[in-house]
Fold this sequence. Notes:
- By secondary structure, the protein is mainly α.
- It has helices spanning 28-40, 51-60, 64-72, 77-87, 94-106, 112-125, 135-146.
- The chain is built from seven helices and no strands.
- The termini are far apart.
Amino acid sequence: xxxxxxAPDLTKRAPRSVRARLGGFVILPRMLDxxxxxxxxxxxxxxxNCPLDQHFLGFVGVDPxxxxxxxxxxxxxxxxxxxxxxxxTHQRSALEILQWSAYHEERGPSSVEQRQWFQExxxxxxxxxxxxxxxxxxxxxxxxxSFGGRA
Length: 151
């Protein structure tokens, strides 16, 4: 097990919310938490480079293995943001980042298979929560319930 000083222990708490932002990007802080924890062996049930992370990686044009190497060096969020600015193949404007992030905060299932999985998870963790309609809301609720909260 490789330990990082700045690696969260995701067996004891959830990574940051999908909605947390870094450099204007949603998803990024959560992905960094999962990457650091995976390197340190404290990721629990969370996975770096999952389909959600791949939305971010594709938007900026960064190889997940290259980003993981930077995390393994112990770089903080600000240093990672600078690295992304220098190595992303898709340099995005502030407006593009804002629009992309707003979309991903509200994005829901986009296929029959996704809708079915979404509904199954929703029924497991918070069947009476009629306010859950987006992936970010569902993941926030799942994180909360996974660490002892009540839906």
